Amino acid sequence: MGALRDRIDRIAADDRMPWRQWRWAFGAVWLIFLVYPISSLIASDHSVGVKSLGLGFIGAFGLVYVAACILFMNNGPGVDVDTERSRWVFAGTLVALVLALFPILHEATFGLAGFLMAIISFIAPRRLQVAVIIALIVAAWVVPKVLGWSVDFGVVAIMAAIGMTMIAMRAVSERESARAEMHERQRELDAELAVVAERESVARDVHDILGHSLTVISVKTELAGRLVDRDPERAKAEIAEVNALTRAALAEVRTTVGRLRTPDLPSVLASAGSALRAAGITADLPDPATVSTPNATLFAWVLRESVTNVVRHSGASSCEVTVSPETLVVRDDGHGSPLLTFGNGLRGLAERVDAAGGRLEVSSDSCGTVVTATMTEENR
Question: What SS3 class is residue 357?
């Protein structure tokens, strides 16, 4: 029981949970408009019992509306409400409460229509949102006429203003989402272009090494073939030079390939800066020429994977890298993720750092992500 209470306390105090984000307050502030149906109910000639029932329905309506704002405007860790069924259950509950209030409040019930407009704007496709908002505005005029109630022109005007505002906000939100998606696609494209550029650089290195060396080797072997009978000593010298060239070329190829397989920290710092800038991310990195640490190879692996994640997934505008003899820190200001888990890349890095006697830590929230690799004196 104590463990359960501790878990509940941790969840309640977790700043990442939806009710701690406070964006829902922008939707809940509209509760002030409940004053209209409440005042109409109190001023009516219904009995105390009916008024109490009506107040109960209005209170339930407010609670369900606030819960919907909390859950649909902020989806936090451990709260899986982003499904069609859960969204429409909340909307259906609000509609049912409104229908229950019609016999009590009559035309004053339309004072709750603004809340329905807000909820439908959260959960419905844009066309359905527009259709429902227009239908509610028309109903605020037609229903009282049909049922012989008085038409409250103030309520109709307020509903029209709220409805148009909701439609405009939805259009702006969708435009911003499309723009953000376009920027993300551009970031991914820039990252892919950076990788292609690095591959082309390696291809040029291999071509330059092998092209020159193999040309010289070809010329010398042909010369040795012609001299083998006329000047055997000269032919032996040429063959010896071919052997030396072959060994040198092989060493250079191994160095080039090794640069891909076993990164060195200065080279990775340089390529990380290039990749970040290509992705439109401001890079704050130490000068590769001044970096000195006994853990350079290990830190190079961590840096390469971390910067790759920043470019591909963070949505960051800046990235800072700090290196000390015992610590490497990669910090970005992206959107982060409270649900961050170790993928294959980070899991492999954690195992690599752990095998070397160090510790890899990853923290992520709405302010960004921080990856820290630490090696203590005794680990080294």
Answer: coil
Token code pair at residue 67: 């819960």
DSSP class of 110: G
pLDDT tens per residue, range 189-237: 777 777 777 677 667 666 666 665 676 677 678 777 888 788 888 878 8
In the sheet with 359-365, reading across from the earlier edge strand, the strands are 282-284, 318-323, 327-332, 368-374, 359-365
Secondary structure (3-state) at 262:
coil
Rounded to a whole number, what is the distance in angstroms from the first to the last CA of the chain? 44
Q: Determine if the pTM surpasses 0.70.
A: no
Between helix 153-230 and helix 126-147 the angle, nearest 10°, is 170
Phi first, then psi, for residue 262 (nearest 5°) are -125, 90
- For 325-367, how does the pLDDT look when each residue is reduced to its tens digit (9 = 90+)? 999 999 999 887 655 555 546 777 788 888 888 998 888 887 8
CB proximity list for 109: less than 8 A, separation 6 or greater = 37, 98, 101, 102
Contact (Cβ atoms closer than 8 angstroms) between residue 129 and residue 167:
yes
CA distance linking residue 163 with residue 15, whole number of Å: 33
Q: Are 136 and 163 in contact (CB under 8 A)?
A: yes
